[in-house]
Amino acid sequence: MHPNTEITAATAGARRVPGFPFPISRRTDPVSIRPGVRVIVRHLPLVDHGDAQDVIGPLISVDPLVVRGKQGTVEIDPRGVVVLKTLSSKPVRNSDIRAVEEAKAEAFPGLANEWIGGWLARAGDGITERSNSAVPLGPEAAVQPVPVEGIKEFYARHNLPPQLLVPDRIGRTAEHLEGHAGPEIIVMFRELGADDEALATVTNGAAAATTGNTTPAADNGAPTVMNGSASTAAHRAPVAAHKAVFTVADEASPEWLSLYNFRGQPLPPRALELLTARIDGSLGFASLHIDDALVAVSRGTVTRGGRRHMLGFSAVEVIPSFRRQGLATLMCQQLLQWGRAHGADCAYLDVLRTNEGGRGLYHGLGFSEHHRVRSLVL
C-alpha cells in the first residue's frame, strides 16, 4: 500500500501541475524545474511508511526524478513525493533582496525622490510602478510600521496615486495593508563571471565600423557582427541567411523609442523621456539589426546595489515578424557581455509571473528566481 501524499502535499503548500508526476511547491515556477537547478524534495518512504525525508541538491533528471544529495545520487519514486521546491543557487538574505531593489531604484529613478521612514518614495511619469512607487530600501522598513500618511502626502503633492512596491520579506510590514494589488512580478538573478565573455559568439571575429556614440557588446571599439554560421539559437532560418549587428548606444534613437514597449503597450512621450534620462550609473540602449533593419531593442543599466554593481535589462522587444527565432536570447547574451564590460558582477531582471515564455528564456540563460514583488495602490 502506497502512502497517501495528497493530504500531506496540500498541507505543505504543494499543487499538481500538468506534465509533472509529483506535486510542486506553490512558490516554485514550473518552468524552473530543469536539470541542474538546485531543489529540495520531501518524500515519504514507500516501504516502511516512516517519516518524510528531505533530499537537497542539484536536479539530475525530472523523469525519472533523480537528485544528487549529500549522500549521493538518489532516484525518488514520484508516488511518494510530498513536494518539490526549487532553490536559489545560494541562500537569499534580506540584505540581498534590498541590494537588488536598490540597484533597480537607481536604474529607474523618479523625477522627485524622498525618503520617508525607510521607504524611498519616487514620483515620475505616472505610468510604470518602478519609478512611481515607494520601495522599502532602509533596513528599518522591514520592522517598522509603513509610514502611510507620509507616503500619501508625498504622492498628493505630485498628483499621483500613493503606490508601494512590496518585495518579499523586506516589505512584509505592508502585506496587511488594503489596496489594489498589481500583478505578481518575479525578480530573477544570476552571477556574472569570466565565462560570460564567451556567451556572445562573434562569427569569424568579424567587426564593423562604428559611428557616433554607438558602443559594442564587448569593449573592442566596434559593434558585434554575427553571420549565419554563428553557434547561437538566433541563427535559424530565415535569420541564418542574414547579417545580424548588435550595438549599444548612449542615447535612444527615435527608431529605438518606437519599438520600446512596457508590458506590450507603447509608452507616452513623458514616460519615454524619463526612460532615457541620465542615471547614476551606466545606461545603454541595445539594438539588433538584421540586414540594416531594426528588429529588437532593450534597455540596459549598470547601477550599484549594496556593495555590488548590477546589470539590469528591461523590455526585450522583438518585432512580431522576427519572433521565435532566438533573437531575444541573442539580445540577452549580448547584454550580459555589455554589462561585464561596464563593471557588472551580477545581473537581475523583472518578469511577470504570467509570462511563461519569458521565464523560460531567462532560466535558459542561467537566471533563477531571487524574490517576488507586487505593487500596491493605497
From TrEMBL:
N-acetyltransferase domain location: 246-378
GO molecular function: acyltransferase activity, transferring groups other than amino-acyl groups
UniProt keywords, alphabetically: Transferase
Family matches, as SUPFAM superfamilies: Acyl-CoA N-acyltransferases (Nat) (SSF55729)
Taxonomy, superkingdom: Bacteria
Keyword Transferase set for record: yes
Membrane as UniProt keyword: no
Name the record gives this protein: Acetyltransferase
Organism per entry: Corynebacterium auriscanis
